[in-house]
Design goal:
The chain is mainly beta and about 150 residues long. It is built from 2 helices and 14 strands, in the order ββαββββββββαββββ. It has a domain of about 100 residues: Glucose Permease (Domain IIA). Helix content is about 5%, strand content about 40%. It is found in: Cytoplasm.
Length: about 150
């Protein structure tokens, strides 16, 4: 069982409301999303594990049980070519929950015409394997978003 926590403070939003069919349709896995404040912030690891994929706009951390959690910072933000993002971690790093991974500016993302809404996805999980899914309300960085069993 893995508790997946929020990579940043903001407002929880269910995946059906995410403006990207890959996420809203849970094609890469179930989860939830966080609509961050618009001030510059740091996205932190939602689990203890290893950073197996790291891009300015997205990262995946795999926990000791082999579960991969994707954090995608905004929608269509790959098109920003890293503008407004600064990598803090390195691919291959062993990280603890709450450790900084990427500094970014959700307000700049929004001003560039992209949504800062950030999906947090349990990769290759079945929908029924998540409990306690938070899909609304205010969340703080490090607050539980769901439990993956």
């Amino acid at each position: 069982m893995t508790t997946v926590t929020s990579p940043m403070a903001g407002r929880a939003v269910g995946l059906p409301a995410v403006p990207d069919p890959v996420f809203s349709g849970a094609m890469v896995g179930p989860g939830t999303a966080v609509d961050p404040g618009r001030a510059p912030t740091v996205a932190v690891s939602p689990v203890d594990g290893i950073v197996v994929s790291l891009h300015p706009h997205a990262f995946v951390v795999v926990d000791p049980g082999g579960r991969g959690v994707l954090v995608h910072l905004g929608i269509d933000t790959v098109q920003l070519n890293g503008d407004g993002f600064e990598l803090v971690a390195t691919k291959g790093d062993t990280v603890e929950r709450g450790q900084a991974i990427v500094r970014w500016d959700p307000g700049a993302v929004e001003r560039a015409g992209k949504s800062p809404l950030s999906p947090v996805i349990a990769l290759e999980a079945s929908t029924g394997s998540l409990t306690g899914l938070v899909e609304e309300g205010t969340v703080t960085s490090g607050a539980p978003l769901f439990v993956w069993s």
